[in-house]
């Protein structure tokens, strides 16, 4: 399907969390040596004259480099999003975010909230002080998506492309078009402030905001281990001894695991530790052998799988499964 939809002028709330989009450097041509999270969300909004006078509100939820994203910030952000979505006057939410963990935040918000209104994550690969900063255009595009009639669910907008929360991946270290939706392709593109949509909006049954009510310092400890040539099992045994509560293994190719690592993981699983398998490959899903039980993380990235296992453990802790 392909549809082109004009946006309407509903109220959009922009929640700031920091990131490169809010970064600054003392050298205008510096795109890598900047310091993230230096500009407020109000400053970012002021840098987009096209939004002046439009029904937009701004609030700062956090101010950090997204590589340092943590459970407490996720908890505060999810609560802020839910609170704003409950306001009848609000048509959609835009979240300014760093690129490093954007895909994790997007997946978590969609899993917990599955919002009936749009929640749009926006970021930049260049700081606000760059000679050709990409943040202002990305922010303008994100607001256009948030104002699109019928928009719903959590998406990310960067370099003119719209990515669904369950598909988006950062796939490049430097380019401004650093994000992809893999085999499925982007949900749509923004062209001169108008969304041209190719696929449906994200949907699903929300797990519920109360799932994140636990003390964020006590969220279940889940780690990712990776299979590779000459892999060893000592790391897994050390994690188990230290009290890890779940493991995700990013296997090679179609989820294969080095025999030494597999032995340690099998022992951990036999002792009752949940072990989920996915692939370290950027594209594709795990295709099970005939008669094999599919992995619960077959179609997930390692980072999505870690969050999914955390949420499952939180649910079990609350008596939900």
Automatic annotation (TrEMBL):
What GO biological process terms are annotated to this protein in UniProt? asparagine metabolic process
Active site as annotated: 20, 99
The UniProt keyword set, sorted, is:
Hydrolase
Xref: Pfam families: Asparaginase, Asparaginase_C
Which residues of this UniProt protein bind substrate? 66, 99-100
Superkingdom of source: Bacteria
Q: Where is the Asparaginase/glutaminase C-terminal domain?
A: 222-313
Which GO molecular function entries does the Swiss-Prot or TrEMBL record give?
A: asparaginase activity
Q: Which SUPFAM superfamilies match?
A: Glutaminase/Asparaginase
| Start and end residues of each L-asparaginase N-terminal domain | 12-194
- Which PANTHER family does the record associate with it? 60 KDA LYSOPHOSPHOLIPASE (PTHR11707:SF28), L-ASPARAGINASE (PTHR11707)
**Family of the protein in this entry:** Belongs to the asparaginase 1 family.
What is this protein called in UniProt? L-asparaginase
Recorded source organism is Pseudaquabacterium pictum
